Amino acid sequence: MQDITRRRLLWSIPFATAAVAGGGFLAMLSGLRKGNFDPREINIPVINKPIPPFSLIGQPPSAGFNQQELQRQTKPILINFFASWCIPCLTEMGVLQQLSSHIDIWGIAYKDKPDAVSGFLERNGNPYQKIGQDPEGNIGIEWGLSGVPESFLIMPGGIIKWHYPKPLSVASTQILLSLLQ
After folding, report:
1. Where are the domains of the chain?
2. Do 128 and 80 contact (CB within 8 A), yes or no?
3. pLDDT (tens digit per residue) in 41-91
């Protein structure tokens, strides 16, 4: 008798799993229909919070930087996570070059090799005033990174004011510049 009960339990697990997954799927479809669910939305819990603790080794020609140095800044800084292997990072380099005349940009080379980053910056220009390395990606995790490129506007005192989880564009830089006024 106990063997039959165990068999029924084992057979019911896949059906229960399918029912729960189906319920979640129906909830998403209902949210899409009502307009309160965006599958492309990224929830970043770091907005309006202090920057996380970190310390980055330098990426030549920079000596790197850390949390305390960023917190001591008296003007806004744009932190840009990038990588030499990232095609969208290449596409945003022109926008970063133009933006660097309006705001200091500090770069974080995400999961990349120093030689590859140096070559990338030599070929495409260097809009960064400082560059640090995040070779393992641990700093990116602390910042809530979902991929590269991503940019964060840091206000004086080290508060994250704005986050952009894709390549910067002319439209996004207009939003950023309006935040600086």
Report:
1. 1-41, 55-180
2. yes
3. 555 557 899 999 999 999 988 889 999 999 999 999 999 999 999 999 999
Structure tokens at 75: 């003007």
Dihedral over Cα of 122, 129, 58, 165: its sign: negative
Rg of the chain in Å (alpha carbons): 22
Residue 34 is inside which H or E element, if any? helix 2-34
pTM: 0.77
Residue 23: CB partners within 8 Å, gap ≥ 6?
none
Of 63, 12, 50, 82, the closest CA to residue 157 belongs to 50
Q: Does domain 55-180 have CATH number 3.40.50.150?
A: no
Q: Residue 7: pLDDT band by 50, 70, 90 thresholds?
A: confident
Identify the CA nearest to 142 among candidates 42, 67, 68.
67
Q: Half-sphere exposure of 118 toward its Cβ, with a 13 Å CA cutoff?
A: 8
